[in-house]
Amino acid sequence: MEDRLVEQFGAFSLSRLPADKTTSIVRIDNPSASKQSTATSSEIGSEHTPATSVPSTSPSSPCNIGSTSTVPTADIALSPLDIDETAVPSNPPGVSEDETEESCCEVRETAGKGQGLFATRSIKAGTLVFKESPLINLSRQEEKSSKSIKAAFHALDRTQKKVYKALFDLQKGDVDPVVGIYYSNCYSTDAFAIEGSDDPLAHGGSCIGALASRINHSCVPNVCLFYVPPTDPDKPAEMHFYAFRPIAKGKEILSNYNKHMFNGTKKRQQIFLHQYGFTCSCEACVPPSAFWAKSDKRRGEMRKLIEELAGLEQEWEKHNASSPRPEIVRRPIAALVALESLLVKEKLIDRPLRNVYKSLAKWTVRAGEVPRTWLEKELAVTVLISGKGSRWSLTLDGELRRQA
Ligand SMILES: [Zn+2]
């Protein structure tokens, strides 16, 4: 049930493969020193490989969503319902006009978490923090096979192998280190599948990046992955990381590793310890703060709403698809609006929020109404998490233009 709900709502901004995809039971060597590796900054810095201080990235491709667009980019954090002032900035940030043009992050040692990625300047919401080509990129079929992982590793050049082998290995000794490192650091690409593509790497799977592997976890993350599948042999896949909330200079850049974000703190910590070998110290996990005090209750409410929505969807498919009854859409729309409000309060304004707007548009169409408002909100979030020129943004912008 949970996996299906997660798929429907994209309940995590990005995810690494769960431990059950590994070939052995996870052994926790040193829970207090998770993601710690033997790598030093100098081992990573090289003209052939991602450096510890991220080089400039070029702006994404030109976009036809101009300043005259009706896209409500500035009200991304606004909800039609009451907003918890403690959780949302009083002046919700607009989307950065320009994507990253200069380095804005670097790898540093952290206290108790091994290495981490930190902002070297103030980063606006909507900024492309960095992009890199994966060291290894595998299809759904290949990612299950130790042989495929090892073959991909052996195809790397010497410098890349050195960078790869310096990454954190949660399962030290239990499996081949090349395989252990892959499962300890890879990101799922399932959410970025392109229907009809000939390339198996565009149908989900996973990938691992040198710099991406240095991002630590938070249940209240500030960046998320947007995976760009390879378009032709000369244009390999790319991992893009967008800041969907502003990040102050010196603050750590954090992503969400797991799909259990709607569980309470206690259960989440058990999962982190078992699957990743650490305990989380984010503002949702560690007391005392006003945010922490409300977080468990909000996440519990979100979980109930998502379960209810799954039931309402089944009910619709069973009874209403052939002979729609508009009154049946009122409850799911109310549940989704409540979910939107809770996500904003929990600062989870990336993929889960995008999927809520997508669902709101779907149910609005089922009610026989025009979903423009929800599509505009979906586009605003999509721009924030994937850039103005991404295929997601351009597709949605095209849809809105057709409706205009
Ligand atoms: Zn946490």
UniProtKB/TrEMBL annotation:
Taxonomy, superkingdom: Eukaryota
Residue ranges with Low complexity bias = 49-62
Native source organism of the sequence: Cyphellophora attinorum
Q: Which residues form a coiled coil?
A: 295-322
The Polar residues compositionally biased stretches are 21-44
Protein keywords? Coiled coil
Record carries keyword Cytoplasm: no
> PROSITE patterns, alphabetically?
SET
> Know the name of this protein?
SET domain-containing protein 5
